[in-house]
Amino acid sequence: MESAVEESVQRITSANRVLALANGLSAPLASDLAMRLTAIGRPTEFVSDPIGQQISARQLRSADACVVISGSGANESSIKAARSARAANAVLVVVTSFASSPLVSLADIALVVAPAHGYFRHELEYTSRVPHAVLIESLVEIVSGRLGEASRSA
């Protein structure tokens, strides 16, 4: 996972455009990621509407990055947005709880944070996004360090 985190940081830091997407219970995490990255000088967009996500992701380019957050990795709206990012040749970073999820199969970089109880049904019944929030906080902190003075002045 350390190499995946490092590659994610590098891609997010160097991308021309960054788009953060999620649906359902993961949506607040994508919004938080976008706000935090923007606050440290790495402008990041968040689109809440599922159709708008697909449109925005399709307009990305190969020098851009799209971060899709989905606890289950199986949210259909998130999968559609991820496919749009793939079609645009953007780098696709996925944050999820299941390594065998459909989103991971689409990802260039998968950041898999195992759920507390390790099975899909529990993910649906007793969802917690705390592990994902901790990962996102860490990503932002590392990106901030990489941006150096630009981050401090932002």
TrEMBL record:
InterPro entries: RpiR-like (IPR047640), RpiR-like_SIS (IPR035472), SIS_dom (IPR001347), SIS_dom_sf (IPR046348)
Entries under CDD domains matching the protein: SIS_RpiR (cd05013)
Domain SIS positions: 8-149
PROSITE patterns named among the record's database cross-references: SIS
Xref: Pfam families: SIS
A GO BP entry: carbohydrate derivative metabolic process
A molecular-function term among this protein's GO annotations: DNA binding
Protein's UniProt name: SIS domain-containing protein
Annotated organism of origin: Cryobacterium lyxosi
Organism lineage string: Bacteria, Bacillati, Actinomycetota, Actinomycetes, Micrococcales
